[in-house]
Amino acid sequence: MKTSKIITLLIGITCLLLLFNSCDSNTTKPNPVTGISLNQTTLSMQIGDTRTLTAIITPENATNKAVLWSSSDERVATVNDTGSILAISDGSTLITATTIDGGFSAICVVTVNPNTPNIPVTGVALNKSNTSILIGNTEALTAIITPSNATNQNVSWTSSNSSIATVSDTGVVTAIAQGTATITVTTQDGGFTDTCQVTVSETIIPVTGVSLNHSSLSLDVGSTETLIATITPTNATNQNVSWTSSNSSIATVSDTGVVTAITQGTATITVTTQDGGFTDTCLITVNPDPTATVIINITTSDGGSVIGATVVLQNHTGGAYQETATSSSVILTNIPFGLYSVIVSHSGYHPFIDETLSVQSHTVTHAVHLLSTTVHIGDIIPFGAYTWRVLDIQGGQALIVSENIIEMRNYHTSIVAITWAECSLRAYLNGDFYNSSAFSNEDRSRIVQVTNVNLDNQWYGTNGGINTQDRIFLLSIAEVVQYFGDSGQLENRPPGASWIDDQYNSNRIATFNGTASWWWLRSPGFYTGAASFVRTGGYLDMSGYNVDLSNNGVRPALWLNL
């Protein structure tokens, strides 16, 4: 009895062991994730756009394919848990997908561009209001849309009688049979129209006369006026005319009737029809060379007196006019129209030279700011064609940056891995810009070539490239912080921040044509295809923007011998 119980117990234990082994052998082992990639590594979007990224998990049969999505800057674009991106504002951000299993990640660089405004059409005009064509011949009409930069330039063409004349999609009119037809052009945007009356004839319709819209004109030297020849009849086959001047040293005329006044005197402009040789004339009287009163208003960087300053106007074609200042306004009279250099010299101040004074009206006012031989940090000084802010003074040299944005230009011509050393903007500033009319030869002799240290991006670690030898350059992130105000954020990045937003924003704001705008820095952004910049509100954007952005501002900087 006792033995049978023991046997029964052993049999039960054996069955349980077999059961457990069976269950264990049927359990599927998890297949781990080994990597992740995205279907796109870069995206360009407009504000308000949505795009969806797809995460590709490796291997395909991984057990846990769940991922987490995040945006490095949700002010630029957000992403939901399915990878759907919503563009919020212009800028760049990194969209990251991270696997829950293993923590593998993949990145897509998202660039959000400002929305391009729609410029509506306001009108359309044809190059001819009437024309005459022989049967079998063709003539191309041209539609001119207003404004010329309207977004939608599409037009359609129709003929009132295609048995007389047809018109192609590009405005080419073909004469079919004798008669008249009206060709109409219509804009796709707004439905604006213009017409041309087409007369189709089997034989040539001869010219019987010609007349000009003016019989006489009085012009100032250098001015122009367009004469219009009207042929009779208006449907004459040959509408060609030629133009001549009786004295081209007094006034010239172009092949299209544009008269240019050269010097004082009179000349007769004659139009002659090719068919029949009919003529009409216009008497041109060119007035004596006009003169102007030029007022030079002089200020100084230190508020000192300008009495005794010497003002010289040097005409680019010869002749000079000089006055000595007895007040802050120097008045020079009977100055012939033309292009002048303004040269102002005064004891205790650097000579002022401006080679671009255009005298083309009877009263011209020009401002001159004299720079004291003693310059202070924070002074606003004139140099070349621009005004500059003094940021630093060392050993008789001053670091200056343009007070305003001087132009809009891209950092580089295309999005590639680039640093300041190789970018097209550096080549431009040290080449075409340095050698431009913005600086005289004397100005260029005072610009110092310096070695610029190009640091890596302090937040993202992006390579800043090699040190460079520059005459003209952009400020770096570190220099903007040093000279415009340091709140400590450069060394201590706020959590999740992509730009420095602090009490010094207002110091960094710069304008272009009176409107606040972005301006480039030479330091790299969050990746090698982006450069850092200062935003409209003065935020120092450490993440930067794609280097091919063409509507970002340029504030050149240089070291100047005082």
Give a short overview.
The protein is mostly beta strands and 562 residues long. Helix content is 9%, strand content 45%.
Give a description of the structure.
- Helix content is 9%, strand content 45%.
- It is flat, with a radius of gyration of 37 Å.
- By secondary structure, the chain is mainly β.
- Mean pLDDT is 90; it is low at 22-26.
Shape: flat
Radius of gyration: 37 Å
First-residue to last-residue Cα separation: 119 Å
The portion of residues forming beta strands comes to 35-45%
Strand order of the largest sheet: 35-36-37-49-39
Number of strands: 49
Mean pLDDT: 90
Percent helix, as a range, is under 10%
Largest sheet: number of strands, sense, barrel closure: 5 strands, antiparallel
What are the low-pLDDT stretches, counting only 5+ consecutive residues below 50?
22-26
What is the number of helices?
A: 5
Structural class: mainly beta
Ordered list of secondary-structure elements with their pairings:
Elements lengths: L1 H24 L9 E4 L3 E5 L3 E3 L2 E4 L8 E5 L5 E3 L4 E4 L3 E9 L5 E9 L9 E4 L3 E5 L3 E3 L2 E4 L8 E5 L5 E3 L4 E4 L3 E9 L5 E9 L7 E4 L3 E4 L4 E3 L2 E4 L8 E5 L5 E3 L4 E4 L3 E9 L5 E8 L4 E10 L9 E6 L4 E5 L4 E8 L1 E8 L6 E8 L3 E8 L9 E4 L2 E9 L2 E6 L4 E2 L15 H10 L7 H6 E2 L1 E3 L15 E3 L6 H8 L14 E2 L4 H4 L1 E3 L2 E3 L1 E6 L5 E5 L5 E7 L6 E2 L2 E5 L1
Parallel strand pairs: 2-9, 11-18, 20-27, 28-34
Antiparallel strand pairs: 1-4, 3-7, 5-8, 6-7, 8-9, 10-13, 12-16, 14-17, 15-16, 17-18, 19-22, 21-25, 23-26, 24-25, 26-27, 28-31, 29-30, 29-32, 32-33, 35-36, 36-37, 37-49, 38-48, 39-49, 40-41, 42-47, 43-44, 45-46, 46-47
